[in-house]
Amino acid sequence: MLTIIAAVAENNALGKNNDLIWHLPNDFKRFKKVTMGHHIIMGRKTFESMDKPLPNRTTIIITRNLNYHADGCIVVNSLENAIIAAREDENPFILGGGEIYKQALDYAEILDLTLVHHSFENADTFFPKVDFSKWEEIFREDHSADKTHKYDYSFIRYQKK
User: Fold this and answer.
1) What's the CA angle centered on 135, arms 130 and 140, to 5 degrees?
2) DSSP string spanning 92-125?
3) CATH at residue 137
4) What share of residues in the chain are helix, strand, coil (percent, to 5)?
5) DSSP strand E in 16-152: where?
6) What is the pLDDT at residue 17?
7) pLDDT digits (tens, 9 = 90+) for 41-86
């Protein structure tokens, strides 16, 4: 079961300059809990924004650069090859970036989104448009802004119909 996991603003913004625009500590905690022990698939730019592989996860990097190497990671040249490399995992996760998410929508069975209830006009990377008529909401947890979370946000999980 392939899962796309992302934190997305109301206008589909993902980030700017290969970084997140917002800081939601509870989203990071949830991301860590959900992905721990699994294969995580991402594009090269997303990987390079993290500096190193995330602990206790198998990192698969997609890049067109056939000479690319990252210690402790599996490097492949297509989403299809990444999915094959993660075949031993019952629930690998797609971590982005924008183009990888777009490709993965056809393969994913679950969308695990943190919806940030704000629009960010200064973003340069966006989550692809999703036809939600093809997805069923199976979980939602709403949170209000507080002293450590500047924006309201919701954890929402969708399953492909």
Assistant:
1) 100
2) -EEEE-HHHHHHHTTT-SEEEEEEESS--TT-SE
3) 3.40.430.10
4) 20, 35, 40
5) 39-43, 58-62, 73-76, 93-96, 110-116, 125-126, 135-143
6) 92
7) 999 999 999 979 999 999 999 999 989 999 999 999 999 999 999 9
Query: Residue written as tokens 């969308």?
Result: 111
pLDDT of residue 147: 97
How high is the mean pLDDT of the chain? Answer: 97
Instruction: For the chain, list residues with pLDDT below 70.
Output: none
Q: State residue 125's pLDDT score.
A: 94
Res 51: pLDDT:
77
**What is the token pair recorded at 62?**
């997609």
Regarding beta strands 13-15 and 125-126, do their DSSP bridges make them parallel or antiparallel, or are they unpaired? antiparallel
Number of structural domains, the chain? 1
State the residue range of the domain holding 98: 3-160
Distance in angstroms (rounded) separating the CA atoms of residues 37 and 79: 20
Cβ proximity of 130 and 89 under 8 Å: no
Check the CA dihedral 26-28-32-35 and report its sign.
positive
